[in-house]
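Weekly modeling sync, notes
Attendees: AB, CL, MP (scribe)

Item 1: holo prediction request
CL wants a bound-state model with nicotinamide-adenine-dinucleotide before deciding which constructs to order. AB pointed out that an apo prediction alone won't tell us much about the pocket. Agreed to run with the ligand included and paste results into these notes for async review.

Input as submitted:
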Amino acid sequence: MMNRTLLVTGGAGYIGSHTLLALIAAGYRPVVLDNYSNSVPEVLRRVQQLSGVPIEFVEGDIRDGKLLDGLFQRKAQDGSPVECVVHFAALKAVGESVANPLAYYDNNVGGTTTLLSAMDRAQVRHLVFSSSATVYGEPIELPYSEQHRIAPTNPYGWTKAMVEQVLKDWAATGEARRAVALRYFNPIGAHASGVLGEAPQGTPNNLFPFITQVAVGKREKLMVFGDDYDTVDGTGVRDYLHVEDLADGHVRAVQYAGQAAEPFSAINLGTGRGTSVLQLVRAFEQASGKTIACTMQPRRPGDIASAWADPALAYRLLGWKAERSIEQMCADGWRWQSQNPDGYGG
Ligand code: NAD
Ligand code: UDP
């Protein structure tokens, strides 16, 4: 019997908040658990405003097993036991993970084992996990297929690879456990309403929010990390996908977890297309009508030249493919940034 109640960890974050809307639209009832370490309550207020439905929220940490026990028990007693966990909660800054690896292993790996133990106690059998293309490391061959060797180059990436292994071993213990690890490429953009988007704290680590902050006048110019790569114009190439496409991928993954033949699957979510830094800058200038000042800098240590997905497995297993263009990602990202120059604080 389907009751469609989900636990969404990290649901107040960038990808989680967009996914809540997609899940609600598909008829699911998400319960959000977030410790607000990298988000604010305003996010969920806006998700409720857009969806028109109240969202159950628990402020807390995935490393708190007692809290998880209470949450799962309460939902079961309400007659709406959690059917699947969508697990976004994690720390995600690569540089910070190099400086403070234990915080990353504790939060991302330890947090996940605590969550899985509580799921076992509550007999919750399905989990969808936010993995990352960063698990592949230096490409041996592009596009990356899911069979590409796993060789992360920093502690953050290792937490994702380790959690995948944990999930594989956990799911293999039987009792109909199912785990789906989604290896995201580079999610960018914002909800088409301009009401939800990415609001990094401090200086953005990632390219797209840096570009939008230059456009809105919060930063002077974009530093382009390397123009001597073996790529179309010398700048780094990535597979950018619209965060709303990524959100839709989670709805498919939750459905798939309910009927998957394999206990564990790792699935790329990307468009299969590469875009260079300068191509993205040009597309953003077109969409926004703003000029983005750029300065060429040396390569960022640890960066690879190019990365893009083979998205065929996502289509085969989930029936999912990315639909939205780079132009749409830029237009939606600009609508969000221009309407909310200070993110959720503005
Ligand atoms: P985000 O930081 O916006 O969202 C993560 C949310 O989890 C935040 O709201 C944070 O407060 C919460 N959180 C963190 N640790 C927690 C804990 N111990 N207990 C409870 N809540 C906790 O990040 P995002 O960009 O939305 O990413 C979501 C997931 O996707 C992460 O697992 C991230 O590693 C992964 N991912 C992100 C990208 C990307 O480019 N954004 C790419 C690949 C994978
Ligand atoms: N990049 C850049 N300037 C920035 C941030 C990123 O030139 O301020 C480049 C980076 O070298 C890479 C691409 O933009 O080629 C995407 O970087 P991001 O950090 O967004 O994603 P990741 O490298 O993790 O795929």
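Recorded for review: The mean pLDDT is 97.
Action items: CL to compare against the apo run; MP to circulate these notes.
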